[in-house]
Structure formats: structure tokens, C-alpha cells
Amino acid sequence: MKLTILGGGGFRVPLVYGALLGDHAEGRVTRVTLFDLDEGRLSAIARVLAEQGAGVPDAPVVTATTDLDEALRGADFVFSAIRVGGLDGRAADERIALAEGVLGQETVGAGGIAYGLRTVPVAVRIARWIAELAPDAWVINFTNPAGLVTEAMSRILGDRVIGICDSPVGLGRRVARILGADPDEAWIDYVGLNHLGWLRGLRIDGRDELPRLLADEEALNSFEEGRLFGPEWLRSLGAIPNEYLHYFYFNREAVQAYRSAERTRGAYLRDQQAGFYQEMGTPDTPALAAWQRTLADREATYMAANREAAGIGERDEEDLESGGYEKVALALMRAVARDERATLILNVRNGTTLAALDADAVIEVPCLVDANGAHPLSVSPLPYHAVGLVTAVKAVEREVLAAAESGSRATAVKAFALHPLVDSVTVARRLVEGYTAEHAGLSYLRH
Q: How many other C-beta atoms can be found within 10 angstroms of the C-beta atom of residue 337?
């Protein structure tokens, strides 16, 4: 099988290749094509993959190209992990939003809207390209904002595009570990949108063990989300929120922490990765070691501003393990290619799963995956407070999609103004002015 990775010069690509190296079963991926517009980044990541695969007899063959047609032809799976505007764009998104006193995170609030407005037109063009050159391929989308971009691509590719994220998987694994359960054997009741969901139960042998965790103060303080939100708030909710909900529940504290930080997360990653790719410009640099060192620092500093706002200090070693989006992607490909049934938390079209949303709305829920794709499983209704957030943010996503399709500046302003974390139409207008002045990728917003 052939896997094409769009954004193949991206820093996290070796995680995907590492997962493939551990798969030796029949029907596995045997060819990986890296596509990127930046030849220098492509070359650097190709070197890392070459060192990863050294000594592995059946390592997938890697090719790199800047030709999208070449990359897509013959693909069985397409993994999309592009970043329109690069990390310079992300840093600008954060800076412009924070100057207006609102959140600029890349998937949440004003920054997420700006990133979506830049990314959706490109993602739609790519979806059309895939439909023409690789109509039988399955598309796995990791491009942020993942739910929004998956919904945009699904308008062309239907259910053959599936979004993935490691946040809910990581949360489920941490909660299972605290409860002494095998994460692979536990049923995780999780529902919401991408980066806006709640773990509402964790069943072991048919019994929901989450109430036991919520009643245990010491246990709640022993993992990242418990410390981030605090036991009292978690018991009030009766659920464990995705870490990104910290931006909603503690918005003032998060914005203040971001504004007082020496650098925003985007600026930090921009500078860190620039250092990595510059180091890789030296031919004798040990590529894999340089990448591993950079990755370790990246993971240790994840959501540092939020932890500072919550007063919880550095991440514990056991919290450094993410859900492993590369493992989710591999499990998804296995299930589809080999008809090996699996239950995974994915971003898919709603159908009739959540009554508050229409059938085409992309949501993040447990899905049964088989050779016919991902099928959302039935979940109990959301409480009203969650319905409010989910429907408000989905309304914003729809305005982003409408603005990307029409080029309407007024619709873009509406997207910003309707977001729960943007508190003024006047601020929304200034944000659109600031972002369109900064990003060439938003020049289509003309009328």
C-alpha cells in the first residue's frame, strides 16, 4: 500500500513513520511519499526517516517530491498535515489576537478562526485534487483546525475523509491509568467537537469507574487535566474536559498568561523548529538524534502558559506521553485496509449522533471502524452547558466555511464576532483588518 503524507517536511512526520516501522503484517504500508513545497524541510525529514528505518528489513520505501500530482497518484491513504502560512503565520495569529486582548491559540478563539480562514481554501483545493487523482484513497486529516478542515474536505470527499486528534486519546489513557485499567480494554465515553469535548465516563467490564475518580481528591490531582481544571470544577461538571476547554473555562487567566509570556507558543515553535532545520542543513548532523532532542523539548513545554495560569508547574513525566496521533492513524489504516474492526475516537460527520447538530456537522466521538470507514456510535445527549458551547462553536465554523467559499469580509467578521471568546463586534472587525493586512493567504476576503 502507498501512503502519501501532505506536509511531508513537517516536524512530526517521523512519528508516523516510526509507527509504520512497527507494523509487519500483511497489507501494511510499503511505500511512503512525502509531499511538501519546501525542499529543504523535505530533505531534512527524509534524512530522519532514513536513520529511523536503517536496519529494519521491511521498512517502507520513502520518496520525497514537490509535485502534488506525483504524490497523489496511486495513493491508498493520504495523510494531510499541512500548515498554511507556516509557523510564522501561527505566531502572527497569536500576536494580533493578544493585542486585542483575546485568545490567539491556533485552534481556539480568534487564532483558530484566522488559521481556518487561511487553511480551508487550500484544503478544499487539495480535496478536489484527491477526488480527481486518487478517488479511491482514504484521507486522514490532522491539519488544524482539524474538525473544521475535515468538514470542509468532507463536502467533496464525503465519508472518505476522517479527522484524527491525539487529545481525547491521551486524556482517556491518563484517566484509565489512574483507575488501574488497560486503556485498550476500557470503553471511553467521549463526545464533542475537536478540541471541545468531554470524557463523561470510562467503563471497565461494563461498570463506569469515572465517579470513583471524581470522588478521589488525591487521584484527581495526580494527572494533568485534574490539576489543570481543579477537582472542585471537575466534580461540578461530572466529567473530565479536553485540555483545550481550559481556554474557555479559565479564559481570563489563559489570556493573561499568554500576554505575560516571553514568547507565545507559536513563536517558540517557530524559533525551535528553525533551529532544528538549520542544524539539519549540516550534512554530518545526526538527524534522528537532533529530531528526538527537539521533540522532547517540544512535548515538555506543551500548554506551558495554561499550566502557569493554573499554578501547576511543569508536566509530570507520565503526562508527557500523548495519545499518539500516529498510533491512531495506524490503527485507522489497519481497520480500513484489513477490515480489522476497531473502536477509535475520530472526527466524522454527525449523521444522527448528536440531535443538536445537523447530519453533515463533523463531530468528535467514538467510532466503529471497518473496511467501509468510520461509523459514529450512539452516545447519550450532551448537557445544556455543553450543547451551548458545541452549537456556538459549530456556528462559527459554518461562518468560516461560508466566508472561505464566498470571499465575504462581512461573513468573516461574523465568524469572529460570534465566537464565545471574542467579546465585541468592534474587536471582530479589528481582528479581520489585522489578519488580512498580515496574511497574503487572506487576500480573497475582498467584499
A: 18
Cα dihedral sign, 313-314-320-322: positive
Contact 111, 103 (CB under 8 A): yes
Distance CA 343, CA 341 (A): 7
Strands 31-35 and 161-163: unpaired
Which residue type does 349 have?
R
Q: What pLDDT band is residue 358 in, cutting at 50, 70 and 90?
A: very high
User: Measuring CA to CA, which residue among 7, 57, 60, 65 is closest to residue 32?
Assistant: 60
Place of cell 463531530: 363
Do 432 and 412 meet the contact criterion of CB atoms below 8 Å apart? yes
CA pair distance 415, 397, nearest whole angstrom: 7
Task: Quote the DSSP letter at residue 139.
Answer: E
Taking alpha carbons only, the member of 73, 47, 113, 23 closest to residue 402 is 113
Output the pLDDT for position 182: 92
Rounded Cα distance, 241 and 370, in Å: 28
Distance CA 219, CA 226 (A): 8
